[in-house]
Amino acid sequence: MKRFSALALAGTLWCGPALAEAPRFTNLFGDHAVLQRGEPVRLSGRADPGAALRVEIADQSLTTTADANGRWSVMTRPMSAGGPYTLSVSDRSTRTVLSDVMVGEVWFCAGQSNMGLKLQDATNGGNEVRDSENPRLRFTDIGRDVAARPLEEAKAVSGWALASPKSIGPASAACYFMAKALQAHFGVTVGFISSTWGGTQTQAWIGENGLRPLKTYDDALDRLALYAKDPQAGEARQARYFEDWWAAHEPDAKAKAAWARPDFDDAGWKPVRPTRVWERLGDPELASFNGAVWYRADFTLTKAQAEGAARIALGLIDDSDTTFVNGVRVGGIEGRTTRRAYALPKGLLVAGRNVVAVRVLDSGGSGGLYDTDDQRYLAMADGSKLPLPEAWRYRVSAPLDALGDVPVTPWDPTKGTGSLYNGMVAPVTAYTVKGVAWYQGESNVYDPPAFGRLLPALIHQWRAAFGALDLPFVLAQLPNYGPVSDRPGASKTAEVREQQRRTAQTLNRVGLTSIIDIGDRYDIHPGQKTVVGARLALTARRVAYAETVAQSPSPVTVTRSGDDLVVRFRDTADGLRTYSGDTAIGFEVCDGDRRCRYATAVAKGDHVTLASANRPEIRAIRYAWSDSPFVNLFNSEDLPAGPFEITVD
Question: Looking at residue 593, what DSSP letter applies?
């Protein structure tokens, strides 16, 4: 970004007094940026309030005025692909210029860790990075951030970069391969903006306008609004909310409140040095435990130490904690990667024996206090540290299924309510994009019906925010991961896949990309992102560009035919294929009570026949209904049929 003085621009700009703030573009614009072709493009930025501005690109010269808050925006006329151009904004004394700006295709890629997986970490990533030199493929990344209210500008933007061995390694692999395929197909410059955060839930990515209509998140949104207005008041309200929940949900909560007090006798508790998650302590009770566990430790202070301690640090805790010192709650945080450090009120510590008690709640995966000993200490006002004891004691309180739905802090990075939308999506909505590629869902498998309401809400709200009510969305359906099945059964992951399918089936210009054949049953982060990106690009060409291109086969109808059931598919190209056998594996027939059995299925042309499956009690057909199904049904373009469940009339 370059700025020029009035002297340098004499004869090209009108004269007048210098203004306080030089005009600029919002930080998503920059040197090497890509602007969307064929559509009016919104350009925006900041300047001195009331400043008269001129914005220029290619053969367009546009005027606008900054509002009372210094914000400005202007819409260009549609532009054809081309460049490089300079993009400038000027007031009466200063001109800001962006260079090497191209007009082409722009895609916004968002989601959790599988969208965020770096190209350098993908299968064959090293070779791809080595051969990546392509000035017509460009990208920028939105840094991880949460916010209590929608931001106008992202706090951290990587800046636009040209694909090259020096730059491309940390880029989103799935988005890169999608953009690469689109660039090769269209022959124009393609830019992609990525905004990702691993382990995040859908509701964190939806703004207030999208969540309010669902009615489920109103209280959380109210707490978030209070936090945005007054963080201290918001923290206090959240603490009360959390404690009320514990009182209502922790078994024997009234008796267990004594576990926080210094006079409680914990002699019967198990000893522990909390430097590892509880699954690795060798305690069979905790080997695969999710739920609540209490930890306690006592420490002795002199009068001077008690008066000089300012904070207590506890290191890393998975997932959330409520920390008490001498029976008084001093703090609580959610997030396994956040080191805890809480302020200590004056007078709380005493000369002699003191007790710290930590109630830890783990809602999945590993849990507990697990940092190194040197991360647990008292921080003294003079800057010194007083180590806390290495010897602690613990006791299991309750398993997760005895606690019910766990409350979440609305501004939590991964599970919050709109927090990621505010920090990592809202700033992008002022940028004109062709469409969105969304790869997320793993963190919502705990409640597939809720996910089925959230995904359409996200699409509707983002479309409204971008100002494009038919903005194309390309969804990556969850791939195979987790335990395999040797008999029909329940699968929440399969239910999430079905919600993704129904969303794409119901909403206009939403496409579903099946990748059920390229996951990894042992790794939630499969490395084969080359195929993911290529298939996303095919879906994008259909939903965003109205091209007739190959797609994964999907069911259209199921009919009763004599003794058989016949499932007809669309997008079969030259016909369905079954690999490594004459039959299609993974088909199930189910009665009205969801009792299912495998069915013999034979593919021919555009349909699959389930032999001798037409019985009166059969009400549904499922396909690939497992966390990690094996599949062999493809079309002639080598695209797999995606998992589904459909009813039988």
Answer: T
- Do residues 100 and 31 lie in contact, with contact meaning Cβ atoms separated by under 8 Å? yes
Contact 426, 28 (CB under 8 A): no
pLDDT at 7 over 80: no
Q: How far apart are CA 132 and CA 127, in angstroms?
A: 9
Q: Is 236 within 8 Å of 226 (Cβ atoms)?
A: no
pLDDT higher than threshold 90 for residue 313: yes
**Surface-to-core class of residue 472, CB atoms within 10 Å of its CB (0-12 exposed, 13-18 middle, 19+ buried):** buried
Q: Cα–Cα distances in Å, from 223 out to 149, 231, 322, 418, 581?
A: 12, 10, 19, 12, 57
SS3 content of the chain, % helix, strand, coil (to 5): 25, 30, 45
Angle, helices 529-543 vs 173-186, to 10°: value is 50
Q: Pick from 479, 491, 397, 398: which is nearest to 446 by CA?
A: 491
Cα dihedral value 333, 342, 366, 122, nearest 10 = 80
Q: Which long-range contacts (CB under 8 A, 24 or more apart) does 371-374 make?
A: 371/274, 371/275, 371/314, 371/315, 371/316, 371/317, 371/339, 372/275, 372/315, 373/273, 373/275
Whether the per-residue pLDDT at 560 is higher than 90: the answer is: yes
Going by C-alpha positions, the residue among 362, 363, 405 that lies closest to residue 216 is: 405
**Sequence letter at residue 69:** N
CA distance 189 to 359: 53
Number of H helices, E strands in the chain: 13, 36
d(CA 407, CA 152): 29
Tokens representing 112?
């959790």
3-state secondary structure of 308: helix
Q: Where are the alpha helices (DSSP H) in 441-491?
A: 448-466
* Cα–Cα–Cα angle for 551, 556, 559, rounded to 5 degrees: 145
For CA atoms 364, 457, 159, 129, the dihedral sign is: positive
Element (H, E) at 648: none
Q: Which among 563, 562, 569 has a CA at the least distance from the CA of 646?
A: 569
Summarize the confidence of residues 107-132 as an average pLDDT. Answer: 97
Provide mean pLDDT across the span 597-602: 98
- Residue 312's SS3 state is strand
Task: Read off the pLDDT of each residue in 501-526 and give the average, rounded to a whole number.
Answer: 97
Q: Which residues pair with 183 in a beta bridge?
A: none
Q: How many CA atoms lie within 13 A of 591 on its CB side?
A: 6
CA 151 vs CA 111, 154, 617: distances in Å? 18, 7, 54
